[in-house]
Structure formats: structure tokens, C-alpha cells
Write a structure and sequence with these properties.
The complex is a heterotrimer of chains A (298), B (433) and C (206). Chain A has 298 residues and is an alpha/beta fold. Chain A contains eleven helices and 13 strands. The relative contact order of chain A is 0.11. The chains are: A alpha/beta (298), B alpha+beta (433), C mainly alpha (206).
């Protein structure tokens, strides 16, 4: 296959922890995905050019992957402002993918300097001044970190020349049209409002007390499992809402309640509906749900 | 006396760094290790609920996030204990935490071996094999992190440990799946990395038997041996370990004598010209990492290597690869003995502890990781993170050089110096936080 | 032809709904005047001038009728409180409005509140199968929950356990209406609205 026919991929990092890059390395078909591309630069894998080349020269770039929060000035690599390097390649690229919540909305690192640090296209939910310039090429992949298959989905859609359907924040609806709640193994407990008494138990749902944000967080973590095997909620850890613009919030392991009523409702569900349903369901005592799922003989 | 100043951008070290070399008559006379940006996680943590550290601190680093998680939960538990609450983790929770931590270390070392050491060594010595080393790194890494995810839910960035234990409650099915994945890794490791069965490898305790090793490891050792790399990269021969784990107990090793340590004496200081802070133990620089752990625990094969080659580049590289084998064996035992009918979390969720101070220590991939939390009114008033790379990369003075600095002094090739630098397995994002 | 028959069906359905409601209201009256156990289905049927058999078409037993009545009164009260919740008033004003609604209903339709206190609370066995827990009063409870949720998230009321606050509010109101029913209150119940609202607000405010 001629190298010149493959689209050119450039992975640039701004203020990041590298979590998205390492998450992507876990993709079970990593090299087959990447074989469709000509890798100009990648921060971990071997690539055609060095970072010095990326900064000093003007390399070809079709698909630009941005990882990390954005800052206009004060962050230099190899003597040049990272924002200027990003700008140079953003202009050349046909697709700009913001990989991770930091690059998309600002994420954790925005909290160090909320005035000056933001996502590339969005500052939490507001459009940045770069949005108008690059909106036609922008694809948002929030997540902390991203799931490797979310990125491979976009890379393959581009290669196959398919149009990716996006929502108003440029998130692919095939990935973010679900909630993290979809497919959680504790759904039955959620249906019948059986609280869990503590962490570390197989039984009970985590929404009422343990701060689980799954029912109102957009993502597909319980549909496309993490590391092909599991998810946070499946191992009893509450969802922290890491794909949302508001990530991270405060007091993450505890549900915020007003007089015992959860402050946040499942996505799109009106409070009256949720409370009425809860009231009905809590009136019934289903024996199976109050028992332990399994016990081992000692 | 021809002095040249060269500023070299080092990349692919979990971010970047700048090495500011002073060459005199063609040899490295001085080198300053500088980092240009810091994200301020310790400041971001202030004002947050104590347990939020379990979610925020892993985001210090994309490759060693799990170590930060364990350090953070240990810091909180230590804080509770300092306030009078007694915490007896179930052996199940302890073992699960150790297992997932081992998985991360294994993932880190194997990536370093195949994404940094092999390709850079080949480039340095002009011995390109044409192999796609990245493929092996990716395959190995995805298997072992999958095993981790069975307990942790996901990797990177799991937060499955809480004060008092873990959130997961695994079944035999889960444990056996983790075991199968571990076995798969071991099989591949034996085939490709060491060329011999792992038990045979772990029986090697003397330099004289190193020739028995095969695979890619043998190739690296040969290439290094033939190019004098057992005679360069020496540092102070001073090592320190703060964490208590199967690989080593806490202690410091000066040449070969081992002494006790107290983590309270680890102290950070601001450095000029870089955003990274230096760290010393009683005002001295110490090396942390696999070689340190091996020296403090007196691991036989490393002792033997050290006898011949001291803390050279070769000894350092060997120690890190050796740890993979040790951890694999250790992890198998952990899973086999896991008591799944014990409780996962023993702490009552409704205790009310709002004022405490605690320290959590972990032996992370690159060395000792320390988290210090101060909580007031339920919120974090101060949080300090000291990462292993900070220890190794502190800049010293001519009289008292830093660890990695010393390793590079005297070399007359900038790329070789870069290779010595990378043999410390540098993590840029951890160094600056 | 088709329109006429659809029109007829709708007319019949409307008539049935009105009939159902009149049964409920009549039953309410009789239960509150003569007591729950003393009132029989034939009593109710005869008051409405309908056959007992026909009444059974609407409610298959006295217990079922009792349960439907509680749902009906709960809905009625809930509807009024929903209107209060929909306003932009302050917590203090809303409390005043809810107390007013409750006491007005106690005055204009005393049978409703009487029914709740004297029939529902005192004959739990009648309601144990079909009205488990709070199922039948959810119309009312939900609106109180929404009221609390709104006022805590706006910072006006102190965050606390739901039942602590609910007990204070509803226990107080129920107690006053009970006293009214016993003819113990010297003044008309509207007289007490201001003081009671102020007491509740000060007890619950942030």
C-alpha cells in the first residue's frame, strides 16, 4: 500500500497526564487501526518525525488528535508556545479530534487557572473563540480518559468516509447517546431502589448514597466495556461523570441530596416522575433483592 | 578548555524535559535537568473533600495512575489511624490492592523495555532489527491491564479503593479469569522476553549464569555488554525505599549496607530554572526504583551484578526487567491464595472524621511515591505529592550531584547521555505534577 | 355515522367518570359522618339512588373503595400543592400557602382530611393489600418532596433528613386539624395560619 494514500495522523499534547494516549495503547486491535494511517507524530509510539520536527517544521497533517487542556500562553515546548503549534496544525487538518475531557471541555487541569485554561473548542459548555474557526472539523471525545474504542471508532469512520453524527457539543451520538447507566449490572437494584449499605458489596445500587453519576452521565462504559472486561460500576465504584463538561465536581463518593432527595435526576427524567416512581417502588419489599446474591460455604 | 552549551529536548518520557548540557573538551562536565510547565494538582486538591483525592491524584500520570490511587487511599487511612480509628484491612482487600498494583508495575516496565530501551538502544548502536517493538508492548500491556480491570473496573484511572478496603467483591470466576490472563502474559514473556521458563530465570542468582537468558532481554544485555555499558552510568550508589511491599521493605542502602529510614525526613525544595522540585533525605540525594528495591532487599542476582558492575547503566536496566519476573511470580501467588469470602471493605461509611493528617507510601514503578494529606473540616487543606522521578532527577551542585546527573557526567556522546537518562525510566508528568 | 358513535362513546365515558367521582364523594361524606365500619355499601348506594350491583361495577369491594378514596384525596391535595410549587414564591411564602391550602381544605371539605386521619391512619388493615407503604398517598408526598428539594437547593431551608422535616410539617398540620375535629380550637382554623406558618418556617429555615 502506498504511504501517500493513507491519511496523516498527528497526535499533539497540551496540558495532560497522558492518560488518553495510554488508554488508546490498550486497544486490542491497535496496530490494525493504525495501519490505516501514516503516523506523523505520536508521543509514545515510534513515529516518522520527532517532536522537534513537529515544532520547528510544518509537517503534513490530515487528522489532528489533541490531548490535554489548552492555554494561550505560558506553556512552551522546544521554545515555542504549544498553542501556536496546535494552531498551525489545526489549520492544516481536515479533522480535529479532542481526545479526553481536558482537550474537549477543560477538565481537571482547568481548575488550576480557570481564567486562562480551557478545552480547545469548549470552555466547559461555552464555545471558545477557536470554535467558530474550526467547528466544521471538530469532533469531541470527552472522557477521563477516553475509551480506546471511542477513538478507533472515529479513526475508522474517517477512513471509511462515513459521516459521524454529532450532538450540539460535537460528541458522536453513537457513543454518547447512551448513559453510563445503560448496561450496569446493578440495574435491577436501581429499578427497585435497593440501596447498598456500604462499598464492597455485590448488592445494591450506588446512585442513592455513593454518588454514582451513571444515570445522568453520557457515555457507553457499560455497553462497550473497559479493557474488554468491566467498568467502574461493575466493580462497585460509582461513576464520577468524567465525560461531562462539569467534571470534576466536589464530594465525588457521596450523593448530593436535598432532604434525602437526590439533587440530580436520571437524564431527562422529570423530578415528579422519578419521585412518584420511587415512592411506589419503595412500598414493596421484594425478598430476592434484600438477600445476598450468593454465599460461600465457610 | 572548549566549553559548549547544548540544550537538548528529550521527548517520549511521559511528556518532555530539557537537558541543559555543558560539554568541556567533548565530555559532559555538567547537566541540568529542567521541566518547563507544571499543572498544579496539589493546588487543585485544596478545598476538595478528602476522598476526592482518590479521583484527582491518579490524573497526575497516565501510566502510573494506579500507584497514585493506592498512595492516596493509604494517606487517608493513615490519617484515620492517627486520629484514633483502627483500620484492619481484610487480607482479601490487601491482596487485591497488591495484585492490581503489581499489574501496573509490570505494564510500566514492559512498555519501557519495548518502547524506550530496545528501540533507542538499536538506534544508538545502529543495530536496527526492523521489528515492530510497539506491537509487543501493546499486546503485553493490554493483557495485564485487563487482568487489573477485573478488580479495578478499568485502567487507566480506576478509583476502586476506598478507605477500609476495595469496592469490588469478586467471584471465583473473576479470579480465574485474572489468573488466565496472567498466565497468558507469562507464556508470552517466557517466549519473547527471557527465552526460558520463568522459574528457571528466577533461579539465576549469579552473573556467571546470565548467559542462560534468551529472548529480547539477552539481546539487550549483549548489545549493552559489547558496548561498554556496564562501565558507564554510575551514580552515588546510594539507594532508598520507603514502601513496604513484596519486592522490598523500607530501608536505605549505601553501597551494600542497609539502614532504617523514616519517611518524615523526605523533604522537597524549589529549584531554579525548572518547575520540578528537588527532594532529599536528610539533605542527601538517593536513587529510587527497581535497582534501589533490589539493593535494599539484597536480591541475589542484583547483588552479584553489583559486585562486578556497581550501579552502572547495565545493572540499572537489568534490575527493572528483573522486577517483571519477580512481580509475575508474586502475582500468581496472590491470586491463588485470595480469600474471596472475606469482606471487601471493613469501614463503616458513616464515621465522622473531619480533621486528620496522614501519609501514604507506595512502591510505584519508578520508585517510592509519597502522598501527604492534611484534612480540616472534611476538606483538604494541604496535599503534598513526592514522586519517584523527583528523587532521581533532582539537580545538585558540583560537590553534590543529583542521581541521574552523576550518571551522565563524563560521557562524550550526547545520545549516549540521553540513553543513560532514559534508563532511569523518567516520567515528566509525575516530576512536575 | 362514525363521528356520532365516537361522540357517544366519549359521552358514556364522561358520564362514567362523573358517576365514579360522585360515589367517592358520597362515600367520603358518609364515612366521615357515620364512621367507616358503620357505613355499608348499601348505605352509599341508596344515598346515590343507584343499585348495589351497579355500585359494585365501579368498586368491587368496600376496601377497594376505601383505597381509591385515599388516592383521590391525596391527588386533590397534591394538585393544590403542585400549584404552590409552580410559583416563584419564597420558601416562607410557600409554607404559608401550603398551610392555607391544607386548612382551607380542612374547612371546605372536612371529610377529606377527616378521612385521612380517622379512616386511613386508624384502619391500616383495610389498606395493607393494595396500598402498601406510601403507594396511595404518593400524589401528595411527591409534591411535599419537591417543595423540600426546591427550598433546600435554593438555600432557604436547612438540609436534613426528609422524615425529620416531614414529621414536623405534617405532624403539626394534622394535629391542628385533629384538634379542630374534636371541637377544641376556640377560634376558626384560618386564624392560626400565620402563626403556624411562621413557626414551621423558623424551625426549618437554613
Amino acid at each position: 500500500m502506498l504511504c501517500s494514500t493513507k491519511p496523516k495522523l498527528l497526535w499533539l499534547q497540551a496540558i495532560t497526564c497522558n492518560g488518553n494516549a495510554h488508554s488508546f495503547l490498550n486497544h486490542p486491535e491497535l496496530f490494525s487501526i493504525l495501519s490505516h494511517y501514516d503516523i506523523i507524530y505520536h508521543p509514545i509510539l515510534e513515529s516518522k518525525y520527532s517532536l522537534k520536527d513537529v515544532i520547528e517544521k510544518i509537517l503534513p497533517c490530515d487528522v489532528l488528535i489533541l490531548e490535554g487542556s489548552y492555554i494561550e500562553s505560558g506553556f512552551l515546548k522546544g521554545g515555542m508556545e504549544v498553542s501556536k503549534v496546535i494552531d498551525r496544525y489545526a489549520k492544516k487538518a481536515t479533522h480535529i479530534i479532542t481526545a479526553g475531557t481536558c482537550a474537549t471541555f477543560g477538565g481537571i487541569f482547568k481548575q488550576k487557572d480557570p481564567e486562562n485554561i480551557s478545552g480547545f473548542g469548549f470552555d466547559i459548555e461555552e464555545q471558545t473563540k477557536r470554535y467558530d474557526i474550526y467547528a466544521s472539523k471538530l469532533i469531541s471525545l470527552p472522557g477521563c480518559p477516553i475509551h480506546p474504542k471511542w477513538l478507533s471508532y472515529i479513526l475508522l469512520m474517517i477512513v471509511n468516509n462515513n459521516k459521524v453524527v454529532l450532538d450540539n457539543l460535537h460528541r458522536p451520538v453513537e457513543l454518547y447517546g447512551y448513559t453510563v447507566h445503560t448496561g450496569c449490572t446493578r440495574n435491577e437494584y436501581f429499578e427497585w431502589k435497593i440501596d447498598t449499605k456500604n462499598f464492597g458489596l455485590k448488592e445494591g445500587y450506588l446512585f442513592y448514597e455513593q454518588g454514582c453519576q451513571g444515570p445522568y452521565t453520557r457515555g457507553s462504559c457499560n455497553k462497550i466495556l473497559w479493557n474488554d472486561t468491566s467498568s467502574k460500576t461493575r466493580v462497585g465504584t460509582p461513576c464520577f461523570g468524567c465525560t461531562e463538561p462539569t467534571f470534576p465536581q466536589i464530594s465525588l463518593f457521596k450523593t448530593k441530596t436535598n432532604m434525602g432527595i437526590p439533587a440530580n435526576m436520571p437524564l431527562g427524567v422529570p423530578r415528579r416522575a422519578y419521585l412518584t416512581l420511587t415512592g411506589v417502588v419503595k412500598s414493596f419489599k421484594i425478598k430476592r433483592f434484600s438477600e445476598k446474591l450468593l454465599e460461600y460455604d465457610k | 578548555m572548549k566549553k559548549i552549551q547544548i540544550k537538548q529536548l528529550i521527548e517520549k518520557i511521559e511528556g518532555e524535559a530539557e537537558l541543559d548540557f555543558t560539554f568541556n573538551d567533548g565530555a559532559v562536565e555538567d547537566v541540568k535537568i529542567n521541566f518547563g510547565f507544571y499543572r498544579g494538582i496539589e493546588e487543585i486538591l485544596r478545598g476538595k473533600a478528602a476522598r476526592d483525592a482518590l479521583v484527582i491524584t491518579p490524573r497526575v500520570c497516565g501510566i502510573c495512575n494506579h500507584s497514585h490511587l493506592i498512595a492516596a487511599v493509604r494517606a487517608i487511612e493513615n490519617g484515620y489511624e492517627n486520629s484514633g480509628l483502627s483500620i484492619e484491612l481484610s487480607s482479601k482487600a490487601k491482596d487485591i490492592r497488591e495484585f492490581t498494583l503489581s499489574c501496573e508495575l509490570i505494564q510500566n516496565h514492559i512498555k519501557w523495555f519495548y518502547l524506550t530501551i530496545l528501540p533507542e538502544l538499536e538506534a544508538l548502536l545502529n543495530e536496527k532489527s526492523g521489528e515492530k517493538h510497539g506491537l509487543k508492548a501493546s499486546y503485553f500491556s493490554s493483557i495485564i491491564t485487563k487482568s487489573l480491570a477485573i478488580f479495578g473496573g478499568q485502567w487507566p484511572h480506576s478509583s476502586y479503593t476506598v478507605p477500609g478496603g476495595v469496592t469490588c467483591d469478586p467471584t471465583y470466576m473473576d479470579v480465574m479469569q485474572a489468573e488466565s490472563l496472567l498466565d497468558e502474559f507469562i507464556q508470552f514473556f517466557e517466549q519473547v522476553v527471557i527465552g526460558i521458563p520463568i522459574d528457571k530465570y528466577l533461579d539465576i542468582t549469579s552473573v556467571s549464569s546470565i548467559y542462560e537468558i534468551g529472548g529480547d532481554f539477552a539481546r539487550v544485555l549483549q548489545l549493552m555488554g559489547m558496548n561498554d555499558m556496564a562501565n558507564i552510568g554510575h551514580s552515588h550508589d546510594r539507594f532508598i525505599v520507603f514502601g513496604d511491599c513484596i519486592l522490598s521493605q523500607p530501608g536505605k542502602s549505601m553501597i551494600t549496607k542497609v539502614f532504617n529510614v523514616d519517611v518524615a525526613y523526605a523533604e522537597e525544595s524549589v529549584q531554579v530554572g525548572t518547575k520540578a522540585k528537588a527532594v532529599t533525605y536528610k539533605q542527601k540525594f538517593y536513587e529510587v526504583g527497581p535497582l534501589a528495591r533490589a539493593m535494599v532487599s539484597k536480591e541475589p542476582i542484583i547483588k552479584s551484578l553489583h559486585k562486578c558492575y556497581k550501579d552502572s547503566l547495565l545493572t540499572r536496566v537489568f534490575a527493572r526487567v528483573h522486577e517483571i519476573a519477580q512481580l509475575l511470580k508474586y502475582s500468581k501467588n496472590l491470586l491463588r491464595d485470595l480469600k474471596i469470602d472475606e469482606p471487601s471493605c471493613i469501614l463503616d461509611p458513616h464515621h465522622k472524621l473531619y480533621e486528620f493528617e496522614g501519609t501514604g507510601v507506595v512502591e510505584a514503578a519508578r520508585g517510592s511515591l509519597i502522598h501527604r494529606t492534611t484534612v480540616s473540616n472534611g476538606l483538604i487543606s494541604n496535599y503534598e505529592i513526592i514522586t519517584p522521578t523527583q528523587w532521581n532527577l533532582s539537580n545538585g551542585t558540583k560537590e553534590s550531584l543529583g542521581i541521574a546527573q552523576k550518571g551522565m557526567i563524563g560521557l562524550n556522546d550526547i545520545e549516549l547521555a540521553e540513553f543513560v537518562f532514559k534508563s532511569f525510566d523518567v516520567c515528566s508528568v509525575c516530576t512536575t505534577k | 355515522m362514525l363521528f356520532k358513535s365516537i361522540g357517544n362513546i366519549l359521552k358514556i365515558a364522561e358520564k362514567k367518570a362523573l358517576k365514579r367521582e360522585s360515589i367517592i364523594q358520597t362515600a367520603l361524606q358518609l364515612f366521615s359522618t357515620n364512621g367507616f365500619h358503620k357505613t355499608t355499601i348499601p348505605d352509599i348506594a341508596s344515598k346515590l339512588q343507584m343499585s348495589v350491583g351497579n355500585l359494585y361495577n365501579y368498586f368491587s369491594s368496600k376496601d377497594i373503595l376505601a383505597q381509591e378514596i385515599i388516592k383521590y384525596t391525596s391527588e386533590a391535595l397534591g394538585k393544590k400543592i403542585r400549584e404552590v410549587n409552580r410559583t416563584e414564591a419564597t420558601a416562607e411564602e410557600k409554607i404559608h400557602q401550603i398551610v392555607t391550602v391544607y386548612f382551607s381544605m380542612a374547612k371546605e371539605k372536612p371529610e377529606m382530611i377527616e378521612y385521612f386521619l380517622r379512616v386511613y391512619l386508624s384502619n391500616r388493615e383495610v389498606f395493607s393489600d393494595g396500598c402498601e407503604g406510601m403507594v396511595c398517598v404518593s400524589g401528595f408526598i411527591t409534591e411535599i418532596m419537591i417543595f423540600f428539594d426546591d427550598c433546600v437547593s435554593s438555600g432557604e431551608l436547612r438540609n436534613q433528613d426528609f422524615f425529620s422535616a416531614f414529621g414536623l410539617f405534617m405532624g403539626y398540620l394534622g394535629g391542628m386539624v385533629f384538634l379542630k375535629g374534636e371541637d377544641v380550637l376556640p377560634k376558626e382554623i384560618e386564624f392560626y395560619i400565620d402563626d403556624i406558618s411562621r413557626n414551621i418556617y423558623h424551625a426549618l429555615k437554613a
